[in-house]
Amino acid sequence: MELVAEQSSLKGTVRIPASKSHTIRALFIATLADGTSTLSNPLYSGDTDSCRTVCRALGAQIAEGKDQWTVKGTGGSFAEPHG
User: Fold this and answer.
1) Which residue from 3, 9, 44, 80 has the highest number of Cβ atoms inside 10 Å of its Cβ?
2) Phi and psi at residue 38, in whole multiples of 5°?
3) Number of helices (H) and strands (E), helices first, in the chain?
């Protein structure tokens, strides 16, 4: 048997499936960051919905689009607790 390897190139785009773990981590990192972050292809789930609620309670501003969320972070300064 003879194996011949030739140089070639691949082209294209691969879309990685949304991940609950990655979405939650990205939300918390964006909440702590200074400035605006964009999360592409976030996972919509009960857990990520709860995480958005917590991040908003901490003072992050989160705008939800079709395939992305835009998070204006707190720069590490959190909102005063309610109640």
Assistant:
1) 44
2) -115, 125
3) 2, 3
